[in-house]
Amino acid sequence: MAAKTLTIDGKQISAFEGATVLQAAEEAGIPIPTLCHLDGVYDIGACRICLVEVEGVAKLLPACTTRVREGMEVRTDTERLRNYRRMILELLFAERNHVCAVCVSNGHCELQTLAYEHGMDHVRYEYRFPKWDLDVTHRLYGMDHNRCILCNRCVRACWHIEGAGTKNVAGRGARAHIISDLNQPWGDSESCTSCGKCVDACPTGALFKKGATAGEMAHNRAKLEFIVTAREKKQWIASE
Amino acid sequence: MIATISNTKKNRLPEILEHASGDKRFKILEAHMKKHQFKHDALIEVLHKAQELFGYLEDDLLLFVAYKLKLPPSRVYGVATFYHFFTLKPQGAHTCVVCMGTACYVKGADKVLAAIEQAAKIKAGGTTPDNQLSLMTARCIGACGIAPAVVYDGTVTPRQTPELAVQHVKGWIDHGN
Amino acid sequence: MVIDDLNAIAEAERAARKKYTLRCCMAAGCHSSNSVAVKKALEQAVKDAGLEDLVEVRGVGCMRLCCQGPLVQVDPDGTLYEKVRPEDSASLVGTLKGGTTHVQKGDPNSPFFTEQLSIVLANSGYIDPERIESYIAADGYRALHDVLREMTPKEVVDEIIKSGLRGRGGAGFPTGLKWGTVAKTESAQKYVICNADEGDPGAFMDRSVLESDPHSILEGMAIAGYAVGANQGFVYVRAEYPLAISRLQNAIKQAKQRGLLGSGIFESPFTFNIDVRIGAGAFVCGEETALMMSVEGKRGTPRPRPPFPAESGLWGCPTLINNVETFANVAPILRKGADWFASIGTEKSKGTKVFALAGKITNTGLIEVPMGTKLRDIVEKMGGGAPDGAPIKAVQTGGPSGGCIPAEALDTPVDYESLASLGSIMGSGGMIVMDDATRMVDVARFFMEFCMDESCGKCVPCRAGTVQMHSLLEKILNREATAADLQRLEELCQMVRDTSLCGLGQTAPNPVLSTLRFFRSEYEELLKKETAHNGEPRAAIR
Fold first, then answer.
1. CA distance, residue B81 to nearest chain A CA (Å)
2. Is residue B107 part of a domain?
3. CA–CA distance, C217 with C330 (Å, rounded to integer)
4. Nearest Cβ partner of C495 from A87, A95, A173?
5. What tens digit of pLDDT does each residue of C434-457 get?
6. Does residue B174 carry a pLDDT above 90?
7. A103 and A149 part of one domain
8. Given CB atoms, is B21 within the 8 Å cutoff of chain A?
9. Structural domain count of chain A
């Protein structure tokens, strides 16, 4: 594979052809914040947290879906970007009911961590206080829609790693929400294999293992990438 | 990528399939799917046909479509709820669609809608308790030259006023004929 | 089918013409004003008068002056009758024998008609959209023949590039360039899609073209298919346009029967088929990547570009997407030459543009004018100004993605760059006139509500940002907002414009930004004074 040379935040780096800006930056030790990105499943560029500036391109581009180009000049940490990221986080906090103090993922939450990192000490937008349900009908897991940020990671894990197709997004706009099968209680789902990959994929406390109380629910996100890599590279197939 | 739901735990499907075998509409629907060779990309066309046949898309019908097209039910439900055109609830015997496109709006469609809402005592998107009238709004029906337009039971009617509109739906609200 | 067959059909069609033709508009506007019954009554009246050998009653596509429908025009003298009722038919037919009629007469020599220049709508109002012979008699499918028999695909692409045609769907991307990219991308399978998901509220140009001249779209698509190397086309039409769908399906059937679609067209090796896909009510599906998802039978959510559809589109194959009006320009360009087309319009915007003129204006309907025509000429001269002579306040173009152009700027020529410089866009061609009674903040709220409802929910700025912008606009309209709220609204507008995934979100703030630019005082009048308590709402992360 050919290598490409590019500049990220003034630092000259090289990356494999076909790599995303996010992968290139990660390898070079330059952090770019993400939310809907998850190692192991394909990227959809939905959360817009990883937007970066590219010299010569008028639009902001998501680092997770933009491929590296020779001579590309990328900026990941300008004032405008930090400002926009904070606004996006505020929009997410105002959109549903995120109450960190009583959340099972308090301290292990990607949304919370990003909010701290971006100095989000208050929300300038009106809290919507929507009424969303809690689904604890599944034997092992629960889903609290109040904490969902619609990053779609559970859906992608369910379809592309487990292959069950249980989870999906229904509705649209502000009414979009995650469903199981025909919008049934999770416990009644006929396609769910109870594998728990969706739970490990979740960046917040929306999906959790039953029995976890505030602050206890740490997701094992690396496990998903481990499974995918093992499968793709056929690491577990005995070669005699 | 695609799982079937043929080996389900709860087994609602045999019941649905048995019911379907005695209902001609399911046969027509299946023939329509066959015309599209049961292809996944025909899902929207199939849902159009299903709604045309049954009036609305109830859960069992969606499950039937999912089974026949070999799609996960969550995909079918996700698509059915994405598009405005599909309804998962039964509609009234009569429908009244008020166009809320820009041309209609600046010519007073909001007042027409408000008048019907008041007369029928329902909000846009609702159906009267006796199931006689469903009131809906449309984004733009492209009849801007004759704005404001209202569609009564499928017939586009030009230049509506609050009075004309109320007069039109009055019969459906009062004695449900 | 060979060229002689095509000529024979055209000849037969022309030979069958009678001394008089009563053209009766059957497009959506007149259709809903009972034109079907009018046509039937006219046919009966002709029979009753024993004039069947002299008079043809022809159902035609849009005759443009929708507000006066149903319209009937008499050939050869061009007398135009307005608001015709079925019971008027006897007296109307009677005029052909020297009788008189009380039916309201329109003026075909008024500026509304004479200022128009028709390329896209050239056949509209003249040919019968239900009969392929009628299109062939108007030189239909001749361009397809010449392209297949005499030109290489590259020559076709070059001709389109030379014409300067730009996409009529909104952004104005050079059409030839797009065709060239698809043509150059290597793939065993490519697709051509016609975007007929005309979702802008207040726009009905594409609907009229489909209803009035469906074969021109099929011919344009087939030529595009040959130029880029595709053998399958899709027309994606809104479910809200049943008449357009049925005419399109009818046209495809006829073209197949005549061998003008299918395999070996005009005895060349070229194969091209077209299928209709019906939308299901989602504005976002006008965005090309969302549209392709919908054609694949999925939720119509857009995806980031690149990759552009020209490289990776429908089912991952190179795909050419153009809108209805763009395809309608293709056959005329190849028939009359790129130089002819490039001689019309302005330096950067070539050809004509069809607009749907509606709102507070005397003459509502469809117009086609050369690019560069002044807005004032369209609104005042052709449109006749606001009814009752009320002053015009603004013209809205581009629907929810566009902006409001104030009356002071009416001398702006209509082209892509001029409209963009005013914070609006050409859009697909909806043009809504607003008078003094229209409150601009209310208009901004109307469009924001539209975008909020139509947001697919995939990306955060559009999904959550439109909700917040809408609630701030409501707050302003309720006189509960402060200057800090207005500032917050402006910041949100910029952020949503810069960070949203697709065109819907990126342009959703346009109606707010453009009304803020030209009508800021209307916002400020609604603000209440700032006090110590209604500054920034403070709420720590809980």
1. 5
2. yes
3. 9
4. A87
5. 998 899 999 999 999 999 999 999
6. no
7. yes
8. no
9. 2
| Helical pair B59-69 and B73-80, crossing angle rounded to 10 deg | 120
Say what the pLDDT of residue C272 is.
98
The domains located in chain C, with CATH, are 16-114 (3.40.30.10), 140-342 (3.40.50.11540), 352-435 (3.10.20.600), 440-524 (1.20.1440.230)
Q: Which residues of C touch A87 (CB under 8 A)?
A: 491-492, 495
CA distance C347 to C345: 7
Only one residue has tokens 């709102």, namely C359
Q: Dihedral of CA C204/C206/C208/C211: which sign?
A: negative
Residue B85 lies in a domain: no
Number of domains in chain B: 2
Q: What is the mean pLDDT of chain C?
A: 93
Q: DSSP for B145-176?
A: GG-S-EEETTEEE-S--HHHHHHHHHHHHHT-
For C71, phi and psi rounded to 5 degrees?
-105, 140
Q: What is the CATH number of the domain that holds A173?
A: 3.30.70.20
Interface check for C448 against chain A (CB to CB < 8 A): the answer is no
- Touching C: which chains, 3+ CB pairs < 8 A? A, B
The average pLDDT across C419-430 equals: 87
Neighbors of chain B by Cβ distance (3+ pairs < 8 Å): A, C
Q: How far apart are CA C425 and CA C517, in angstroms?
A: 15
ipTM of the complex: 0.94
Nearest to B78 among A160, A170, A190 (CB): A170
On whether the CB atoms of residues A117 and A35 are closer than 8 A, the answer is no
Model confidence at C504: pLDDT above 80? yes
Classify residue A240: in a domain, yes or no: no
Q: Which amino acid is at B16?
A: I
Angle between helices C214-228 and C242-257 (to 10 degrees): 60
pLDDT at A211 over 60: yes
In this prediction, residue C60 carries a pLDDT of: 96
DSSP letters spanning C42-92 = HHHHHHHTT-TTTEEEEEES--S-GGG-S-EEEETT--EE-S--GGGHHHH
The per-residue pLDDT of chain A, averaged, comes to 94
This prediction's pTM = 0.92
* Per-residue pLDDT band at B176 (split at 50, 70, 90): very low
Selecting from A48, A99, A174 the residue whose C-beta is nearest the C-beta of C467 gives A174
Position of tokens 């979702």? C199
* Chain A partners (3+ C-beta pairs within 8 A): B, C
d(CA B75, CA A169): 8
Put simply, the chain C residues between 182 and 221 with a CB less than 8 A from any chain B CB are 198-204, 207
The rounded distance, in Å, linking the Cα atoms of C176 and C322 is: 11
Instruction: Tell me which chain C residues have a C-beta less than 8 angstroms from the C-beta of A150.
Output: 457-458, 463
Q: Mind listing the pLDDT tens digit for each residue in A157-194?
A: 999 999 999 999 999 999 999 999 999 999 999 999 99
